[in-house]
Structure formats: structure tokens, C-alpha cells
Design a protein that fits this description.
homodimer, alpha/beta, Alpha/beta knot, 10 helices
């Protein structure tokens, strides 16, 4: 069962200010929780149906009904399990290979897809501007489908960070060198900009090469940032 | 102004059965309607705010208030203009270049992104299985952001269609030849499968080459079909 205070606490974690205060976030659904159990992330509390507990032999679970789960879930249809998870300390992983830099990516679905694509293409480190959407936002967590637990992500002041970088810094623009004609170095930073405004002026100063995806048709003016990131990672990491 | 019957009629077009019966669909929002006005699609009725009508000097518009527009809109926040548009006859365009084939793509957002990416990469023809989501679904129309008016799309029985194809037929699979190592012909068919089940067995028989996107990280089991399509079109068309 679940108490009123627990419900209030868990629902409160939908807000970033509460996640920051409590240093916790929510992971829901069987697939994501299975990936969570395989990760080094620390579970504080776990609420699950009798069936899930039996199938997963997780002894510390709080058994709840489907109706109780629906009261704490952020999903349209609540799944069989929900975990309260401790936010780990940010870490800077290996600086080998491509490091992805996000300059104010705002949409949770886009960030989730980007994290998933980093996991697919073996990118181990994402560096986000302070105004990039929170990775512990429930929509981001959900759309990463477990990839969140395998990619190191940190939030920094980008200008301070980029000033110290000693690899080539590529930036995605509507006008730039066609990525198909570039032989990229193995160790690079790649910057993707905000959905509406692209890469900011202050960040642009640090870019050593502007790159672009060939607009073959010539009719559409922009690409979704998650799709563009996916194509660039395929080109540079695959 | 707008009558109760008009409201009922327009709201009814949210359902496919009514779109099929009336042979009409809805286009909303300034960007999409601007693209519509530039296309050969035939507008049957157009509802817009005083400001939009003044700015666009479109004389046949029905002037409505923002509140009236909200009553007929499918958008979370209604925009300044909504058009009722005649569904054109399906046409088979040029068979040159890459022709994209969709085998039961179900998600409107995915189909919208795919149509947009075809427009970006200069793909002129999409061939959909009968069970692929309707291109005149409001979420599809919205997410194509006007690209719908520039790509020829038809719904066919795929097995009958593929039996007559005389180009190489590529299909996207989790296991296949790495697309980075393929020199594709200019004229090919490329088949993408359903979100959950991939390409069906009956369709698979017609595929001459299975292709795949290199899973560098090796941790994630699947790619979103719109993202995978984007990467493949970049590789084959750019």
C-alpha cells in the first residue's frame, strides 16, 4: 500500500524544483525499471504490483494495486512498477571520441531521443547548457527507454566549458560544410542548438567548423534537432 | 462567423471515416496554410481571424473570432487560420530515384516526420500499405509542416505493388548489411516496417537486400522508425 504522504511526495517530483530539493526522480514502466535494476543508479523506493514483484523477486518493493499506481504515475496508462531513484553526482566521463554538446535544447522528447541515439552510436558524454531541459523530467526519462543510465550527462556554463576544450568543435548550422564531405577527427565536440533559435552567438564563437546536412529537396527550412543529431552521429560515429 | 452545422462538420473530419466520406481534410496554422496556398491543393472553406485575412488578402475567407476558431481546432492552442481542403486523387509520380515504402507505420508523428524528411532529401514518392496511418490525420498533417503538399503518396496492397517493381528493393532490418558499406543504385525502393513488428513476412519475400544502421553502442535494441528513415535517406539520397 501507499500512504497519502508518499503520494504527495512522488507527485511532487514531477516538478524540477522538488527533484532538485530532494535529489530524486521517477522511473516508470517495466522496460525502464529493468534497465534501472541493471545500472549503478540507487533505488530509494519502488512501488509495484503483486505480479511484478513475483516475476522480479525484488524483495524491498512496496506492493500496490493498479489503482494506487495510477495515482502516482505520470504515464497515460500506469504500468506495473514505479521507482523513486536518487539523482547521481554528475560526472565527466572519458573525453575520448565524440562529445555531444546541447545549447538550450528545450523539448523533453527531443532530449530523450538524443540520449537514446547517443547510446546507440556509442557516445558516452553529453554536455548540456544550464537552460537545456532537465534530464530527470519524466518525459525525458520515459523517452530514453533506459539509455539515460548509460550516458554521462552534465550541465555546465557552456562558454566556460568550451573555452577549455582542446578538440575541434563542430556546430550544426543550416549553412555549413556538407557532413558527407568531411573526414572528421575521432575526438571532437559537436554542438546542437535550440529548436527555435539554433546555436547562440556566445557559443558560436568557439566553433571551429560549421557543418550541415545536405538539403537536397530545398523546400523545407529546418530539421528537427533530434533527427539532425541522429544523422550527424551516424555520420561521425558509425 | 461560423454556424453550428459547420462546427459539427469540421469536428467530424477528425475521424477518418468522415474524411473518406467527404473527401476533405483539415489544415491548420499559419505556416501550414501558407504552404497550402502555394500548392495545387484545392481549398473548400477557410476560417480565419480578421488579422490573418488582412495580412493575407484572401477574400474568400470566413472571418471568425479566436474563440470560434478554438471550437473547430485540433491544436492545443488554436492558431489564426483553419482550412477545409479537398483530398486530391492519389497519383503515382516519377519512378526515378528512391521510392520509400511504408509497411504499416502506425504513429501519426512518425509518418509526419517521415514525409517531412522525404521532402528534405528530395524523395518524391511514398507508397504506403493499406494499414499505414492516414496521411490526412490531423497530427500527420500538422507534423509535416507543409511537406505533405510536395510529396506524392499512395496507399496500395504492398504485395501486389512489389511484385511488379523492377528496381532493387532494400528493407531496413536490425540485422543486415551496414548502410555505410553499400553503394546503392540511384533507383531503388526502400521499405520501412511497423514500429513494433518491423517488416511483415509477406513483404519481406520481395526484398533483395536487407540493410541496417550500425549499432555502435550495442545496448539499445531498436531505433525509432522516423529516425531510422532519416538516417537511411541521408545515406542514400544526400
Amino acid at each position: 500500500m501507499i500512504t497519502k504522504n508518499q503520494i504527495k511526495y512522488i507527485r511532487g517530483l514531477a516538478l524540477k524544483k522538488n527533484r532538485v530539493k530532494e535529489q530524486c526522480f521517477i522511473v516508470e514502466g517495466e522496460k525502464s525499471v529493468a534497465e534501472l535494476l541493471n545500472s549503478s543508479f540507487q533505488i530509494i523506493d519502488l512501488f509495484a504490483t503483486k505480479q511484478w514483484i513475483a516475476e522480479n523477486s525484488y524483495e524491498k518493493a512496496n506492493e500496490v494495486t493498479v489503482a494506487e499506481l495510477a495515482r502516482i504515475s505520470n504515464l497515460k496508462s500506469a504500468n506495473n512498477v514505479l521507482a523513486v531513484v536518487s539523482i547521481p553526482e554528475e560526472k565527466q566521463g572519458s573525453s575520448d571520441g565524440l562529445i555531444l554538446v546541447l545549447d538550450d535544447v528545450n523539448d523533453p522528447g527531443n532530449l530523450g531521443t538524443i540520449i537514446r541515439m547517443c547510446d546507440w552510436f556509442g557516445v558516452r558524454q553529453i554536455v548540456c547548457s544550464k537552460n537545456t531541459v532537465d534530464i530527470y523530467n519524466s518525459k525525458v526519462v520515459q523517452s530514453t527507454m533506459g539509455s539515460l543510465f548509460r550516458v554521462d550527462i552534465m550541465y555546465v556554463d557552456l562558454v566556460t566549458y568550451l573555452a577549455k576544450v582542446n578538440t575541434p568543435i563542430y556546430g550544426a548550422f543550416m549553412e555549413g560544410e556538407n557532413i558527407k564531405s568531411i573526414s572528421a577527427s575521432k575526438n571532437i565536440h559537436l554542438i546542437m542548438g535550440n529548436e527555435a533559435n539554433g546555436i547562440s552567438k556566445e557559443v558560436e564563437k568557439y566553433i571551429s567548423k560549421k557543418v550541415t546536412i545536405n538539403n537536397v529537396g530545398g523546400n523545407t527550412e529546418s530539421l528537427n534537432v533530434a533527427v539532425a543529431t541522429s544523422i550527424l552521429l551516424h555520420e561521425f560515429c558509425s
